[in-house]
Amino acid sequence: GGAQRPMTEEEQLMKMHVDAQLSVIDELVDSVQGAPPEALVPALELLSRIYGAIIDKPDEPKVRRIRTSNEKFVAHLGGLPVAMDFLEASGFVLQRAQDDAGVEEEAVVFPREGSLSLLRQARAKILAVINAEKPKLSPAALAASQRSGGGGGGAPQ
Questions:
Q1: Do strands 65-67 and 104-109 pair parallel, antiparallel, or not at all (unpaired)?
Q2: pTM of the predicted structure, to 2 decimals
Q3: Which domains, and CATH codes, for the chain?
Q4: pLDDT in tens, 41-57
Q5: Which value, to the nearest 10 degrees, does the dihedral of the CA atoms of residues 74, 75, 78, 82 take?
């Protein structure tokens, strides 16, 4: 412990930025409250997993970049347009780049200078919504969510 050193100007700006982004995320959380849990829960669980992977391995470029054409991404987030807003509010940026074959592809990327603190807090808010919405799922949807490795936490086997 000991006394905390005063924050540098950069840290203060970062904290202000994080706080501002978190209030955007709060608004997004409010905006999805009425969404059907069958669409909402899988989308938020995928977001939570994406965030969790980056928090666990922030230096792994693979986890920081998700192609928007990725099957899971399309399947889970396609039904929740606001998912992109969550990603952007959490510090992700949309990038277009050419793959090896010269085909242009779009990806959401968590930049190196992105705030892990923001990701962690955003993920906590997302998990809170998941926990609130999961009980509303129909048994079939619940089973599907568990099959897809729903929920956060836990080390990979």
A1: antiparallel
A2: 0.82
A3: 10-138 (1.20.58.2190)
A4: 999 999 999 999 999 99
A5: -110
- Find the radius of gyration of the CA atoms of the chain: 17
Residue 23 contacts residue 121 (beta carbons within 8 Å): no
Q: Please give the share of the chain, as a percent, with pLDDT higher than 90.
A: 64
State both tokens at 88: 């952007």
In total, the chain counts a number of residues equal to: 157
Indicate the SS3 state at residue 94. Answer: strand
Strands lying side by side in the sheet with 104-109: 65-67, 104-109, 93-98
Dihedrals phi, psi of 66, to nearest 5 degrees: -125, 125
Q: How far apart are CA 83 and CA 156, in angstroms?
A: 25
Q: Kindly indicate the confidence band of residue 154, based on its pLDDT and cuts at 50, 70 and 90.
A: very low
Reported as type and span, the H/E element at residue 48 is helix 37-56
- Looking only at Cα atoms, what is the longest distance across the chain? 55
List the structure tokens of 10. Answer: 């950069």
DSSP 100-148: TTS-EEEEEE--TTS-HHHHHHHHHHHHHHHHHHGGGS-HHHHHHHHHT
C-alpha span between 145 and 151 (Å, rounded): 8
Closest CA to 106 of 154, 150, 138, 74: 74
